[in-house]
């Protein structure tokens, strides 16, 4: 019989995040499972003579953080293209296009991503003609930071079946004053461009890039993450599944992943039984992912009352209420979890209604359907979500990164003050999680927690003081509440006997520092299932 190696973590603050709010002196781990939590002396006696001891040197030990919405495998693919950094003017994107053209094959699309049109004085993206002038003979795509829209030159439009010199009847193909496509495309057409113009990665290259992404997640405290929208664009669900499983088999997967797969590939794969298999310790096929609207920043979110800068701009939901009623019922009645992207108030209303109707037809006590972003939810929406068994994952960093533009451009002061209503959810007793939507923004866990607590924009504006939450609630959003959204609260999310040894080490306790200093707390090391995967302990 093989003896299980034990490790005693001591001389720090063990913030368990259990229901009682226990803070302990030490935690004893046997293999990859927590054996006991308690006093230093008591656990030292329990550990026995062969136990390894780790001196925390005053650090705070939290449960491993859990990301409930991002796109790790898609992020890996984007890494082969050109990320647009913060630029001063529109013309600054053109050298990036030329530089990327030197790196790709002649037949491949030239792709620049993370371009933010509202962060430059021009407040627009490049037109078809401007892109043609930069690169006339090769397809070019400049993706908006939201990922929901992009700017295309004539060659790119041709590749996706759009004649750049003739009118085109599609709501997602925008026309100029001349009645011709101006190069701006949205939603389904943008995703089509992604699929047809971005070259597919071979398996080994994708694996290498996913390893890089996982390391970035580990560095931000994550031991688990939802990889959402698997199967979108040119990255097939099967490729993503193989990547993660091969990394697991080779011992190189340092983070538990929950794969939320787009509805079409989910429908295709469900009859195979793959999605219901036992899986393994690190790869789980979880929710059905779909989108009910677009992005506020891109002007494609469903806002029936219109945008602040243009009240006539009133994008609708993707599909109809009847469509969502039947789609939601289909998966709900099959016992599946849904993960639905909703930003605008119209999309949120539609999906809550669809879930309510599905619950009426097929009651489920613990469905835990997720509304992702849930940016414009009202208090009434939050109340109905709680009753219907819907959980929100808020993109709280909207407040910090785009809050000033929500206030001044997109939504106006009143609606902007309500975005990502963590405070409203807390008051009504609805658990929520937080996310960064990587690659839209990089993972920045402490900044996300800081924003939920302080509600400060980049310019320092206090945006919606009544939507602030205490530090503990913000930490729950990355631990206990996040674990519940994975149906894993019995295994993860808190430091308790019998749960997996997933830990995040911080150089200070966020609950003990001034609220304005939370984003200065550093992640020191990360333990995933008993193994050091990042930081000082790994080194």
Features:
539 residues; alpha/beta; Urease, subunit C, domain 1; Diaminopimelate Epimerase, Chain A, domain 1; TIM Barrel; eight-stranded parallel beta sheet; 18 helices; 22 strands; 22% strand; globular
Describe this structure in words.
There is one protein chain. Strand 1 (6-15) and strand 2 (23-30) form a beta hairpin. This protein is globular. The chain is an alpha/beta fold and 539 residues long. The chain has three domains: 6-64 and 499-535, Urease, subunit C, domain 1; 81-197, Roll (Diaminopimelate Epimerase, Chain A, domain 1), CATH 3.10.310; 292-469, TIM Barrel (Alpha-Beta Barrel). It is built from 18 helices and 22 strands.
Outline the fold blueprint.
Elements (H helix, E strand, L loop, with lengths): L5 E10 L7 E8 L2 E6 L1 H8 L4 E4 L4 E4 L1 E6 L1 H7 L3 E2 L9 H9 L8 E6 L12 H7 L5 E5 L4 E4 L1 H6 L13 E3 L5 E6 H11 L5 H17 L2 E9 L6 H13 L6 E7 H7 L13 E9 L29 H13 L4 E5 L2 H17 L7 E5 L5 H10 L1 E5 L2 H14 L2 H4 L5 H6 L5 E2 L10 H10 L16 H6 L3 H6 L17 E4 L16 E6 L2 E5 L4
Helix pairs in contact: 2-7, 7-8, 10-11, 11-12
CATH architecture type of the largest domain: Alpha-Beta Barrel
Q: What is the domain tally?
A: 3
Oligomer state of the chains in this structure = single chain
- For the termini, the CA-CA separation is 30 Å
Individual helix count: 18
- Number of DSSP-assigned strands: 22
- Secondary structure: helix percent: 25-40%
Sheet with the most strands, sense and barrel status: 8 strands, mixed
Identify the overall geometry: globular
CATH superfamily of the largest domain: Metal-dependent hydrolases
Poorly predicted sequence stretches spanning 5 or more consecutive residues? none
Task: Report Rg.
Answer: 23 Å
CATH topology of the largest domain: TIM Barrel
The helix-and-strand class reads alpha/beta
CATH class of the largest domain: Alpha Beta
- Strand residue percentage: 15-25%
Mean pLDDT: 95
């Amino acid at each position: 019989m093989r003896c299980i190696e034990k490790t005693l973590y001591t001389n720090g603050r063990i913030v368990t995040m259990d229901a009682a709010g226990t803070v302990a002196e030490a935690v004893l781990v046997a293999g990859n499972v927590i054996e006991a939590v308690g006093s230093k002396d008591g656990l030292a006696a329990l550990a026995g003579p062969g136990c390894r001891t780790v001196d925390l040197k005053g650090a705070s030990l939290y449960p491993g953080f859990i990301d409930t919405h991002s796109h790790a495998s898609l992020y890996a693919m984007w890494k082969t293209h050109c990320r647009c950094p913060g630029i001063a003017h529109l013309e600054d994107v053109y050298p990036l296009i030329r530089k990327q053209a030197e790196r790709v094959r002649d037949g491949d699309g030239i792709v620049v991503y993370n371009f933010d049109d509202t962060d430059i004085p021009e407040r627009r993206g490049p037109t078809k003609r401007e892109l043609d002038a930069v690169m006339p003979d090769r397809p070019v795509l400049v993706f908006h930071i939201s990922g929901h829209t992009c700017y295309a030159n004539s060659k790119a439009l041709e590749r996706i079946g759009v004649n750049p010199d003739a009118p085109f009847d599609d709501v997602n193909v925008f026309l100029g004053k001349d009645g011709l496509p101006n190069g701006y495309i949205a939603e389904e057409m943008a995703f089509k461009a992604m699929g047809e113009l971005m070259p597919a990665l071979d398996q080994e290259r994708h694996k290498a890039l996913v390893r890089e992404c996982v390391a970035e997640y580990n560095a931000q405290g994550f031991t688990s993450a939802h990889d959402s929208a698997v199967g979108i664009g040119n990255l097939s669900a099967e490729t993503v599944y193989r990547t993660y499983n091969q990394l697991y088999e080779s011992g190189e997967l340092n983070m538990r992943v929950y794969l939320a797969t787009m509805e079409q590939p989910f429908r295709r794969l469900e009859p195979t039984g793959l999605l219901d298999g036992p899986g393994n310790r690190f790869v789980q096929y979880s929710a059905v992912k779909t989108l009910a609207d677009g992005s506020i920043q891109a002007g494609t979110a469903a806002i029936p009352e219109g945008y602040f800068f243009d009240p006539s701009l009133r994008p609708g939901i993707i599909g109809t209420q009847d469509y969502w009623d039947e789609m939601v019922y289909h998966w709900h009645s099959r016992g599946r979890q849904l993960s639905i992207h909703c930003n605008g108030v119209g999309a949120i209303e539609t999906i809550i209604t669809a879930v309510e109707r599905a619950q009426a037809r097929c009651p489920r006590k613990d469905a835990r359907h997720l509304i992702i972003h849930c940016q414009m939810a009202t208090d009434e929406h939050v109340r109905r979500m709680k009753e219907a068994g819907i959980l929100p994952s808020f993109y709280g960093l909207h407040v910090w990164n785009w809050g000033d533009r929500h206030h001044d451009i997109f939504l106006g002061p009143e609606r902007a003050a309500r975005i990502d209503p963590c405070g409203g959810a807390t008051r009504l007793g609805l658990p929520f999680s937080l996310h960064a939507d990587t690659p839209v923004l990089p993972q920045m866990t402490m900044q996300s927690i800081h924003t939920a607590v302080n509600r400060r924009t980049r310019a320092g504006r206090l945006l919606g003081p009544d939507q602030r939450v205490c530090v503990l609630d913000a930490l729950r959003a990355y631990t206990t509440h996040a674990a519940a959204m994975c149906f894993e609260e019995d295994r993860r999310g808190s430091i308790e006997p019998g749960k997996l040894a997933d830990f995040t080490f911080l150089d200070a306790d966020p609950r003990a520092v001034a609220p304005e200093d939370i984003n200065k707390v550093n992640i020191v090391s990360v333990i995933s299932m008993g193994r050091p995967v990042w930081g000082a302990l790994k080194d």
